[in-house]
Amino acid sequence: DTAVSQTPKYLVTQMGNDKSIKCEQNLGHDTMYWYKQDSKKFLKIMFSYNNKELIINETVPNRFSPKSPDKAHLNLHINSLELGDSAVYFCASSPGTTKETQYFGPGTRLLVL
Amino acid sequence: GNSVTQMEGPVTLSEEAFLTINCTYTATGYPSLFWYVQYPGEGLQLLLKATKADDKGSNKGFEATYRKETTSFHLEKGSVQVSDSAVYFCALNGWGYGNKLVFGAGTILRVKS
Lengths: 113, 113
What we know:
Shape of chain B: globular
Number of strands of chain A: 11
Strand content of chain B: over 45%
Structural class of chain A: mainly beta
Number of strands of chain B: 12
Distance between the termini of chain A: 34 Å
Largest sheet of chain B: 6 strands, mixed
Low-confidence stretches of chain A: none
Oligomer: heterodimer
Mean pLDDT of chain B: 93
């Protein structure tokens, strides 16, 4: 049973397109996250939702819009894709919001041409 | 703000060698500390964690001790295997609402047979 799953695993698209990445967790957690890993493997948080409410938004361009239809899902929509958006995007979840272990999905490898 | 510094890699070792990957942190309050591992082409897996000073986290032969006096959380393993080849990330999440993980830059470990 996959705890945190993401689709698609790979995404290749042209500059200027709009794309979405989906994330689902079956751990019963209240909090979900999006992280970006750049080409040098550096990881940085983008967003966090707790019970469908946005609680962290880390100076991410407004072309990125997260949406949480329920606490088990957190999707990431990206408008007008740019070359610099090429990265691996990881979804994660945790039980709550205070110093707890986060469990990561397998990642979505996005390549913008 | 909170930050994590890891030793630069890549670290290349022969099988059965002793491993140390240094990690130091800067944080307000009393963060929880984590080591995550990323095998080639995969997502992040929690390796071990410690939630308070002098705690030792351990898993799969890896150990790290939370040292508040030196603000360190060095990862060690007595005898590495080829299958330990991966990228290792030190991370913290700090006090306060949000549970944001702050990662170090990652250390690539290569183990030769």
